[in-house]
């Protein structure tokens, strides 16, 4: 009898142990399955990303990029490591590009008129029609300005007073002593001409980071028109690369010149120009003009404001 009880006790213990083992194993397996991501969760995440990408791709490139780049953007750095900044106003598809300060401290007033335009558009956002974007690069050659007045970025005419002619001329070039308006890929030459002097056009077209900044920007955003300030002559010129100016370039020059009160000339023929910026733009199919201020000291803001407004209006219609 005692042996029978012992056997039954052992069987009961075995049965209890088996049930406990099965319960623990089932719990462990349930926990492992619970920790694994389900196919449903993965599919939902991928579908969401895909829909987002398709939505962005379906929007016009200009609308996407123009809205996402903000009010300012960096186009890169000069030969001496100074940042080149572009200022953007409006979100329209028709982008007009304005550039100053290509010849740095030599033509510091062309940079100043660029900064005046930035201030004007910040104070008068209603001046930009809905279908227009205005981008201003006030200072393309910060190295040249720094060599002349000892600073880069926004400045005043008082910062540029009392400068010797020698210092001012030296500020025409970037830190590599290259004339940036001889470094573009339109009839480029390693040695260019300025008045009766020889100047460096760089080792090759777009050898200079400042010219590359303009090239990359233009090729990315494809502006409908460009206005570039130089000095000094008090005239407006259309552009052409290996040919005659396009009708659109001539019309752009006439529009700006008439409103500003500058004479519009058919072409610049005082001396041969190689590697010119606006001529390169013309070769890319972009109407572009050179606006030469009357001297090296005044921005002639009222005249240029009128020209700018006329151009903006023309490309908003």
Strand order of the biggest β-sheet? 1-2-4-3-7-9-8
In DSSP terms (H or I, runs of 4 or more residues), the helix count works out at 10
Total domain units: 2
Q: Helicity, in percent?
A: 40-55%
CATH superfamily of the largest domain: Zn peptidases
How many DSSP-defined strands? 9
Cα distance spanning the termini: 112 Å
Radius of gyration from the alpha-carbon trace, in angstroms: 33 Å
Outline type: globular
Quaternary structure state of the chains depicted: single chain
Helix- and strand-based class? alpha/beta
Order of helices and strands: HHHEEEHEHHEEHEEHHEH
CATH class of the largest domain: Alpha Beta
Which sheet architecture does the biggest sheet show? 7 strands, mixed
Keywords:
single chain; 317 residues; alpha/beta; Aminopeptidase; seven-stranded mixed β-sheet; two-stranded antiparallel ribbon; 10 helices; 9 strands; globular; disordered N terminus
Q: Would you give an account of this structure?
A:
The chain has 317 residues and is α/β, with parallel strands linked by helices. The N terminus is likely disordered. It has a seven-stranded mixed sheet with strand order 1-2-4-3-7-9-8, with helices on both faces. Strand 1 and strand 2 form a beta hairpin. The chain is globular. The chain has ten helices and nine strands. It has two domains: 56 residues; 246 residues, Zn peptidases (Aminopeptidase), CATH 3.40.630.
